[in-house]
User: Which sequence fits this backbone?
């Protein structure tokens, strides 16, 4: 896969073993921008002690509104080794985190798999959470069977034209839906322990974008009809115009309360009763941390 990279739907075909880089700009070694205990994920992920979050540099999507653009699209920092990644995982477990949460993992999936298997041999016992923007190759997700415990994918778009325009992710819908379906087949609906902490399963995030760009209702319909009505869905209202959003007038404002309520109504109409909603956009703080996740 590295000598002719086919890790994601871009299918760049470049040789990463020889220092070539494709759309994501990632090299052969994993690059970790930062890591630590994160309290702001969904309740079964963050729990009371935080999620052991590893933010990887680079990304295979180029969202014009990315809140993490400083390291997903603008940085080359943080290159480490497989042993370095193993040590980070073990450190996060030692610090009491509920899980290892790999964020934007797609372009480093083989390195993450290798590190996880080796870390488990060295005592890693907490779940691995695969936290992805959802632009995945179904074949690669199949190869992660038995390695990933909890999948946390976005289902960002229901229209390929929107995915290509705003995230440079052609063919997003087909690959996203096929990959999420495989994720669910591997892990099933969400299973938690006695304290409500995720042990296995899938949580799907649906970010509502302004002016219907995300096509959220169609995505929820797919989840209800083709995945499972018992799926835990995190319906996100936190869109904020940032980075290159100013290049697109339709992205220069937050979603309205009416847009978010329409998506919430779709959840109810489709019988998707598990998961979380957030505050109405009109009640949110202007800073990016001003969103509260509430149970449905």
Assistant:
């Amino acid at each position: 896969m590295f000598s002719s990279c086919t890790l994601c739907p871009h299918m760049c075909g470049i040789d990463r073993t020889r220092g070539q880089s494709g759309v994501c700009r990632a090299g052969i070694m994993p690059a970790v921008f930062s890591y630590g205990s994160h309290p702001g994920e969904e309740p079964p992920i963050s729990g009371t002690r935080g999620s052991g979050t590893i933010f990887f540099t680079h990304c295979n999507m180029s969202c014009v509104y990315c809140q993490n653009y400083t390291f997903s699209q603008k940085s080359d920092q943080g290159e480490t080794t497989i042993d370095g990644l193993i040590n980070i995982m073990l450190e996060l477990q030692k610090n009491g985190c509920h899980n290892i949460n790999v964020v934007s993992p797609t372009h480093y999936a083989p390195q993450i798999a290798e590190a996880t298997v080796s870390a488990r041999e060295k005592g890693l016992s907490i779940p691995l959470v695969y936290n992805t923007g959802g632009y995945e190759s179904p074949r690669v997700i199949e190869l992660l069977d038995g390695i990933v415990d909890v999948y946390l994918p976005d289902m960002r778009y229901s229209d390929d034209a929107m995915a290509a325009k705003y995230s440079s992710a052609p063919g997003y819908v087909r690959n996203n839906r096929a990959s999420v379906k495989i994720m669910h087949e591997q892990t099933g609906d969400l299973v938690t322990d006695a304290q409500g902490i995720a042990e296995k399963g899938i949580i799907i995030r649906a970010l509502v974008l302004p002016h219907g760009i995300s096509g959220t209702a169609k995505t929820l319909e797919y989840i209800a009809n083709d995945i499972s009505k018992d799926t835990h869905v995190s319906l996100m209202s936190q869109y904020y115009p940032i980075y290159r959003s100013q290049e697109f007038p339709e992205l220069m404002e937050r979603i309205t309360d009416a847009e978010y309520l329409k998506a919430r109504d779709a959840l109810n109409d489709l019988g998707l009763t598990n998961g979380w909603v957030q505050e109405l956009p009109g009640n949110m703080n202007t800073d990016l941390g001003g969103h509260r996740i509430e149970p449905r």
Observations:
- The two ends are 41 Å apart (CA to CA).
- The chain has one domain: 31-295.
